[in-house]
Write a structure and sequence with these properties.
Layout lengths: L1 E4 L46 H17 L46 E7 H15 L10 H9 L7 E11 L2 E8 L4 E6 L5 E6 L12 E8 L12 E10 L4 E7 L4 E2 L6 E2 H4 L5 H12 L5 E5 L1 H11 L2 E5 L15 E5 L1 H9 L8 H19 L7 H10 L2 E2 L3 H10 L8 E5 L2 E6 L2 E6 L1 H13 L5
Parallel strand pairs: 2-3, 7-12, 9-16
Antiparallel strand pairs: 1-2, 3-4, 4-5, 5-6, 7-8, 8-9, 10-11, 12-15, 13-14, 17-18
Length: 460
């Protein structure tokens, strides 16, 4: 169901005032002060139930006593006597008049809430309404939110009003559902439901930069060497990149690993490309995390056919090629400069490495050029298209990322300035390991990886 969510607090009223009994109660002893109050709880022994007649007499007696009894401090009435009382040497207590003003009437302001209207699922509308109501009045209960988002909204709160109109899109993916919501003031909310209900997991307030997860974001993107029909996650890795992003700053890094990088592993020394074969992509992520202490969130893997099909979904790719590439055995070469590449030609460009200066290192840099061009192409869509784009991406890839991470990263695309993204390849030297041609990473590569972990950027 879709519609409207409104938060209202319960109201209480008395249909009629309570009945009262008017009587004058004696003040507490003067020595306690004119403003003293007694809060002592007195317990009476249990007695047998009295008959109705006796109960009535006792009740009337107690009321009469309360309303007519003489306070202990007040002097008793004078008694006629022929003998004058002796003169008192003790001065009577000085009469004190205390005028205590009643405290000002407490006019508690009603808790402000937000009504959200939009063509979205009702439970999602309710989650947005809870979020905005908490933003408007902190006396409302705070819904489940990432800690970093809560801190971010303290300095950059969202705009709220009595009623907020929203629009957006949702998508069902493996692991749950994702959504992007845009308010009438053009502020953006990200939401995910991983089984516990919709939760807001990101925001782009007008008052400040976006918060799309803890920064820097860092994901490994792997292109499998498997052909159609082969296990895409259990053969060699044809391309290996780390992608970092700081959506609040709009910058990031595309860092390429030469596929033939010679590395040490628990399985022996081998090319980095061979580590995934028979073991899967998570082993490659673990290698990077364990060796260089990088906070890699997860991986995205695709194969040749998956990449080409993905590009068919996006359309022709506008790209500016920095260098011409020679003709290969199975396809023509490429001229330098601006052009549009078909999905098939995009894949061919990303695979070209024979008779290319720099060989594997240059090919890795060219793959980064393709990634930047795809990023610019995706930015031509509206951010509310992100859930559908994620759904399409997952049709042609495998990933270890959660729905929350996927919608955050997809929204991050729209927060980046492609001119502020550095495309670089780890430095290495060509060599041999036995009969195999390999790339031996230089000490500078270790320094770059260590630097990347600080803020997702490279110095210089």
């Amino acid at each position: 169901m879709r519609g409207r969510a409104e938060y209202r607090l319960p109201r209480f009223r008395l249909d009629r005032p309570p009945k009262t009994v008017a009587c004058r109660l004696s003040p507490l002893p003067h020595r306690l002060g004119p403003r003293a109050f007694s809060t002592t709880l007195v317990r009476f022994p249990t007695v047998k139930q009295l008959s109705p007649a006796i109960s009535a007499i006792v009740a009337l007696t107690l009321i009469a006593a309360a309303c007519t009894s003489t306070p202990a401090d007040e002097p008793e009435a004078a008694i006629d006597s022929t003998t004058a009382p002796p003169a008192s040497t003790t001065q009577p207590p000085e009469s004190t008049t205390s005028t205590t003003q009643a405290p000002p009437t407490s006019s508690t302001e009603a808790i402000a809430t937000v009504t959200v209207e939009g063509d979205l699922p009702d439970d999602l509308i309710m989650a947005v309404a809870a979020m905005l109501s908490w933003q408007r009045d902190e006396r409302n209960e705070m819904p489940p939110l990432p800690e970093g988002l809560v801190e971010h909204l303290v300095s950059a709160p969202l705009k709220t009003s009595d009623t907020v109109a929203v629009a957006g899109t949702t998508a069902s993916i493996e692991g749950g559902e994702i959504a992007v919501i845009e308010t009438e003031t053009r502020e953006v909310l990200l939401a995910a439901d991983e089984g516990a209900g919709w939760q807001i997991v990101g925001a782009d307030p007008a008052a400040g930069p976006p918060w799309y997860g803890e920064e820097p974001r860092l994901v490994m993107v792997i292109g499998s060497d498997a052909r159609p029909g082969e296990n895409q996650q259990r053969l060699r890795a044809d391309s290996i990149h780390l992608l970092t992003a700081n959506p609040s700053e709009g910058n990031g890094t595309i860092l390429g690993f030469p596929r033939d990088s010679w590395i040490s592993t628990p399985y022996g020394s081998m090319k980095f490309t061979s580590l995934m074969a028979g073991r899967g992509p998570q082993v490659m992520v673990d290698k990077v995390v364990d060796t260089w202490d990088l906070p890699v969130e997860g991986y995205v893997v695709t194969g040749f056919k998956g990449f080409e099909d993905l590009m068919k979904s996006l359309g022709s790719l506008p790209i500016d090629l920095p260098r011409a590439l020679p003709t290969q055995a199975w396809w023509d070469g490429f001229r330098a400069g601006e052009q549009k590449l078909s999905p098939q030609r995009t894949l061919e460009y990303a695979r070209t490495r024979k008779r290319v200066p720099g060989g594997d290192l240059t090919r890795s840099a060219n793959q980064g050029v393709v990634m930047l061009a795809v990023l610019r192409l995706l930015q031509m869509n509206d951010i509310t298209d992100a859930p559908e784009i994620v759904s399409v991406l997952l049709d042609h890839t495998w990933t270890s990322l959660t729905p929350t991470e996927l919608i955050q990263l997809s929204a991050t695309v729209h927060a980046l300035d492609t001119d502020e993204i550095v495309n670089v390849v780890l430095p290495g030297t060509l060599g041999r390991a036995g009969a195999a041609s390999v790339v031996r990473l230089t000490p500078a590569a270790d320094e770059m990886l260590a630097d990347l972990g600080d803020d997702g950027l490279l110095e210089g």
